Amino acid sequence: MRINIKDWIQEEKENLKEEILIPPSLLILQVGNAAESNSYVNGKLNDCAEIGIKTTLHKISKIDAFLELKTFLDKEGHKYDGIILQEPSGLLEDEREIILDLITNGQDVDGFKINSFYDPCTPAGIMEILKHFYKKDGKIVTVVGRGALVGKPLIPMLVEDGWTVLCANSRTPDLKALTSMSDVVITATGRHALITRDMLKNGAFVIDAGIAFDDNGKMCGDCDKAIYDDPDIEITTVPGGVGLTTRLQLMKNVIKASNE
Fold first, then answer.
1. Which domains does the chain have, with CATH numbers?
2. What is the distance between the alpha carbons of residues 127 and 221, in angstroms, rounded to a whole number?
3. What is the reported pLDDT for 62?
4. Cβ within 8 Å of residue 162, ≥6 positions away
5. Which residue in 164, 213, 211, 157 sits closest to 189, CA to CA?
């Protein structure tokens, strides 16, 4: 059974509109012109415009991206309440770290920096999904995926919230043994159809934060889409699920940054 994220997100956006007196400013740095990055950026631009956040997109080619980003931030970075580097950026790891160092902890509205003032957007959005939609007893959760953007920062958030957390990844031997005993499964590996119905117990609550593409080139998540219409499972869809909560959290962080 699909979890209706969209209606809740729209209510939250209406509430955010009321918090804005002076429009906050957000700078989005994008490297290249990849279709999936364009899709992510367009979603952020549209959401921010809807609630009243003034957003600037600085888009550059991959040639000399690092030097152009550094020069731009040195000159213009101080003008914005929040700044994000759209991933994947294609930068080398040391280049990425230098660019992030030019973004202050108070401007890091993606929550990527170690000492950022804000929680990373996707894990924070997942926690909000659990608080809003998970109304059952049971505290065993399996997190499938160890990436820096979702799995690693999410696990301590769940532990702090009192969950019994099982950590796994796409190569975990007998992954089914862990997922089938869990009340909640959160997956973020980017492996299409990694999670199938037989890996979930009846009544499971599934949050799919994976981004993959099926054989027809359509965006999908880690879960087999056959799960979507199973009445014994509650699941977020891809698209239309975690991506929306990620953008909502970004907008919340930008508003907080403007008030600092």
1. 18-109 (3.40.50.10860), 121-243 (3.40.50.720)
2. 18
3. 82
4. 139
5. 211
